[in-house]
Design brief:
The chain is an alpha/beta fold. It has twelve helices and 20 strands. About 23% of the residues have low confidence.
């Protein structure tokens, strides 16, 4: 009998240790493959061809346009960007959300929207104030996530935030761009961060683009050398075309707003341990796709139709390393008026989703692109939008060619023991059951 009990105890300990080890490894793998930090480095005023026309790695580029201030732009001029593009993901069909200058495109990167009556000078004090316009910062605050904006001195506070609803919360979240590297080295990195050029170092023409490249290299290297690297995704993008030529600037209907515009192609590099290595992303992207990615990773709703329907770079990531969650199920505001779409969304506060919302399938609303080296460039789309007012003066969006269904989303909190403890308990129980079966069998045969 004593031998049986000792065998039973040994078996229980062995199985518990095995299952506990498996559970620990699974948990560690889950924690390792979780995006906790997203950084968007916003540079200044260059097209894709202007920077990567001579990047001979299967990109759709024109080397004759890779010229800046009479000098050929190549690996020796922008070595850091070049190296990152070689090692990680380079998007060669990334377009600005607005065909004009930096000002409206920064708004798209912050709020998936831009004021139509902006002042051409771009100075934030002439921008005006739109208190009804929510931004990504508002969504992050509602979810209890940290965020920071590092920008150059001209605008003091990052101007799209200061000109919108986020004006009341921007203090305490804004810092000079020159401080970003030192903050990361001190162990400070928010869940989400915007970083622009500094007031002295920028690749905005006619500045020295090699110096600007060095700054970007320092910013990325600081993250790579920190504990944040294993949980971070970095987007590096030029905020507008800067007047430089690109052979893939194209004229098409703007796919969310129905406005004919000139799409301006700019480079975008995605740097992360989670992305495919040395990968060229040929899919069509624009700035609101970055917002959609942030919303998807952090479980936020989209701001409006623009980011709700945007692609979010899923194909750039290595599925063996990470699986991105499902994209947002609804958007918060009407693109044109800024009014809240439903009562639920007007009162949205992070996880407290307790009322009925509309879930919109975007399966048939996906934007596809046919981009070739010929002069005729097209982007095919089938999306149209209809805006109607209800009797309660709320705004309802009807999106033809998609399916809609009503769902109820309720905040849920899962309690109980950890998966590791649970696995160990199961292991012990299994061992005991096996031991009892052995004991019963021996008694029967004896």
């Amino acid at each position: 009998m004593l031998k049986v009990l000792l065998t039973l105890l040994s078996l229980a300990i062995f199985l518990s240790a095995v299952i506990l080890n498996v559970a620990v490894n699974v948990n560690a793998q889950q924690n390792k493959n979780k995006i906790e930090h997203i950084v968007v480095i916003i540079k200044e005023n260059h097209t894709f061809d202007n920077y990567f026309g001579r990047f001979d790695h299967g990109t759709d580029a024109d080397p004759s346009l890779a010229v800046y201030r009479g000098q050929e732009v190549n690996e020796s001029v922008i070595p850091n960007l070049w190296h990152l593009a070689e090692e990680y993901v380079l998007c060669d069909h990334m377009y600005t959300s607005n065909p004009d200058m930096s000002f409206p495109n920064h708004f798209y990167l912050v709020a998936a929207w831009t004021p139509l009556n902006y002042d051409p000078s771009g100075d934030w004090k002439y921008v005006g104030y739109w208190p009804n316009r929510l931004t990504l910062a508002d969504l992050l605050n509602a979810k209890g996530l940290s965020w920071r904006a590092y920008s150059w001195g001209k605008y003091s506070y990052y101007f799209p935030l200061y000109a919108t609803h986020s004006r009341k919360i921007v203090e305490g979240h804004w810092f000079p761009a020159s401080q970003f590297v030192s903050d990361v080295k001190k162990g400070i990195l928010a869940n989400f961060t915007w970083v622009t050029d500094t007031d002295k170092i920028t690749d905005h023409p006619p500045h020295n683009i090699t110096k600007a490249d060095e700054l970007t290299g320092e910013e990325v290297q600081a993250i790579m050398n920190s504990p944040f690297w294993n949980t971070t995704v970095i987007f590096i993008v030029e905020d507008d075309w800067g007047g430089f030529k690109d052979h893939l600037n194209i004229n098409v209907p703007e796919y969310h707003d129905g406005i004919i515009q000139k799409w301006r192609r700019v480079p975008c590099i995605i740097v992360s341990p989670f992305v495919k290595k040395s990968y060229i992303d040929h899919r069509f992207h624009e700035f609101t796709g970055i917002l959609k990615f942030v919303e998807t990773v952090f479980g936020l709703p989209s701001i409006n139709q623009r980011d709700f329907l945007s692609d979010y770079f899923l194909e750039a990531f290595n599925e063996s390393l990470i699986t991105l969650p499902s994209p947002p199920k609804f958007f918060i505001q009407d693109f044109w008026t800024g009014k809240n779409v439903t009562e639920l969304i007007a009162n949205w506060s992070g996880e407290n989703l307790t009322k009925t919302v509309k879930e919109v399938s975007t399966t048939t609303a996906a934007v596809t692109s046919t981009l070739t080296t010929t002069e005729t460039q097209t982007i095919s789309h089938t999306l149209t939008l209809t805006t109607t007012k209800t009797s309660t003066a709320t705004i309802t969006q009807t999106i033809p060619s998609t399916t809609t269904e009503t769902i109820t989303t309720t905040a849920q909190k899962v309690g109980g023991i950890s998966s590791v403890a649970f696995a160990a308990t199961v292991g012990v129980l299994i061992a005991i059951i096996i031991g009892l079966l052995i004991l019963a069998y021996r008694r029967r045969t004896s």
